[in-house]
Predict the structure of Oxygen-insensitive NADPH nitroreductase.
Amino acid sequence: MNPTIELLKSHRSIRKFTDQPVDQATVETLVQAGQAAATSSFIQACTVIQVSPGERRNKLAEMAGNQAYVAEAPVFLVFCADMKRHQLACGMHDAEMKSGFTEQFLTASLDCGLFAQNVIVAAESLGLGGVYIGGLRNNIEAVADLLELPELVYPVFGMCLGHPDQNPEIKPRLPLDVVLKQDRYDDSADAERIAEYDKDVKEYYRTRTGGTKDMTWSEQISGMLIKEARPHMLPFLNGKGFLKR
């Protein structure tokens, strides 16, 4: 263990923030930390849009499922997978970019994930806290219109940042032997191990909610995955020039 590993293992989602502002220099430092993340083939395909408090932010909060902390957080960032600048780069050399490939969608989206994880870890190292907002994809076309996103750019998720005004427990993760395999994929013991893990998650929810939430991890997952998962995403991404081949 060292301070870096301790910081990573202490991550919690923070949804309540104090009124203390986060200065712009800090925001820019966090984004620079994000830029330092690994990027596939040096494509650097993540663009971050900082949305100030006000009407536009309030609309994003509504579009994300009426999550009040989207409107209230001192800082709100939207991480966008962006292949438009690559089209520009090709044009600078009179080259026609071949776009729409699934591989481009994957690498641009993964770039955003790596970038954002650097941002939130850097923020936590400064005593800040935050939470990812995947709910923007609930109304992704309206979000894209609100942010004036052009073709080849789509919003992957948002992120609230600020000084924490809560101290939640660390949510237990799956047992290591369920996620770390040796030499081959062997899940012969996973059901048993997940059943044991379910007890930890149930106790976590009971403690965190004062008994109002009584659910295991496998119950939560089974309840979620019997439903459609944002089927509007594919036609939206096609319309933005992604996932065409």
Q: What stands out?
A: Residues 102-125 form the longest helix (24 residues).
